[in-house]
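Annex B. Sample input.
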Amino acid sequence: MAKVFTGKVSIPGENIEEYFEALKQAEKEREPFKTYLECLRDDFYDSLLEKYTENTANKHTGTITMFIEFLCRQTDVSSIEEITKGIANTHFRSWYKRKVWDNATENDLKVGIKKFFEFLAKEKGIENNKVLQKKKT
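Annex B, continued. Sample output.
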């Protein structure tokens, strides 16, 4: 099951270089997944422009950009199917409120995530019923 990393880490001064090296290695390992998500985000943006104004498309895409950062830095998720409802909603919104300075409301975040997962299901054939709160039939 996917994990969300929370809390603080205490690194002794003599181990700081090893810690930075481990961070670089983890980032390198996550790079293919991050690139994949960014490509999906770009397709999502293009899809939004067909229906909404550029301002609305930018708002939703900005939410997804931060969601990608959250997934790659705060979770061990390695595929879209592993994302749980709790990761996409509760954990992401909590992280967002602590880490991002903007005027996005909880509803803005919820709508952006929902539209992204609906886009994935409809346009890309990538379904995550856990996030969309649908039961498999």
